[in-house]
Give the backbone structure.
Amino acid sequence: MSETILKLHEICGENTYTRDDAVPLYNKIRDGLLAGNNVTVDFEEKEISSESFLDEAIVEHYIHPKVPNAAKKITLKNVLGFDKSLMARIYNYRKEIEDKQLKKAQKATNATHSIIRDSNQDSSAKK
Amino acid sequence: MPTPESIRGRVVLPRLMIERSYKLIFERLEQTIKAQEVILDASDVLWISPLGTILLADFTHRRQELGLTTSIIMPKQAMSNQYIRDSGLFNLTQSSNLDGAITSSNVQLRLLNRMDGNVPELLVNFACGQAEDVDDDDRALLRVWVTELMTNANDHAKSEKGFWVCARYNPNRNPKLNNMNICVADSGIGIKESLLRSGKYGKEMSHSQAIEKALEEGVTSRAGHTGGLGLKHIVAYVKSHGGSLTIFSGNACVRVRRKRKKEVKTIPQYQGTIVTAAFNIRTVSKYSKSEGSAESPFQFQ
């Protein structure tokens, strides 16, 4: 397995704030993973402090991975301490929300199934 | 034939140009928006918040785009007089550019066409410069949410004109009172339209419902995604500093404060979104300490 090395500054320049700024980095990571490579992103100790950028460029790959075991194939290098904890905070927050939404959807599906089951039992009893 | 009112207008500004006077300021300004010449009479003004500054700046700027002139009668009170000069408002009424410098008690008004990473840094340096000791975590969190407010304005507003940013420090004697006020305003599509366009939150909602929705966990206008930390976390930070967050969008205004019920008001229709945060920069936040050590799946090297 070969390795894709991405340098933040080469891809995004100084623009590391908005979701639009994050798209080129997101795409490069995705392309590397889809090519079957391990991907290393070198932040070069640049302070990001932008939730939008980190969410869109990095965390999204862990929430909706494009390949199996994506988390084990991505290495983040030279990330400053606060940005590490910010990424963790975004990840945990999104994961919690997605889990809640999933449970809600499952509950709704179960409720629909039980309505269908009940109505089937009703109609067979009438017969 | 044009009436004298359509040629010349005079807007007497209230003594306190703050969030509570929004309706009064807005209505007085809008009545004269198309007059050939407008004089903003600020002679009795005692205090102008960043929101008041932005409302005046936006009014003057819109008139400049229409080729109309606006002048200002400066406040009699020395502090407000100095603020209008320092904030860049006076320059705007003189048709000169905003240079966006920083002065002792404010970050000068800026109109940004796109996100500028230097501005959050400037705002944070300014805010932390007013406090005695702000730890690294708190400083970094402040930078995150200021950046977030600005990227929201940049990403969601879909405004060609860009967005305004302004901050002011109130050196009041009571150390418990809120002393830092930051305002970000855009003239884009507003929160309601942004949520409706996403197709995720129904086909109809009022402006106040849209603002309240935006304050909920995980709400975003991005298609197929869950939300990021967003406004909810900005509110958490501001509340942990004893402050409040006020959002104006469309014809609604929602204010959230620590230990108080959410206030919802109807206001004159504003094209876009204004967010103002008032907080005490000297308070040590408990927010950063309680959320800093999250587990994660990331491999760092």
About this structure: Helices of chain A lie at 8-12, 19-34, 51-63, 70-73, 81-126.
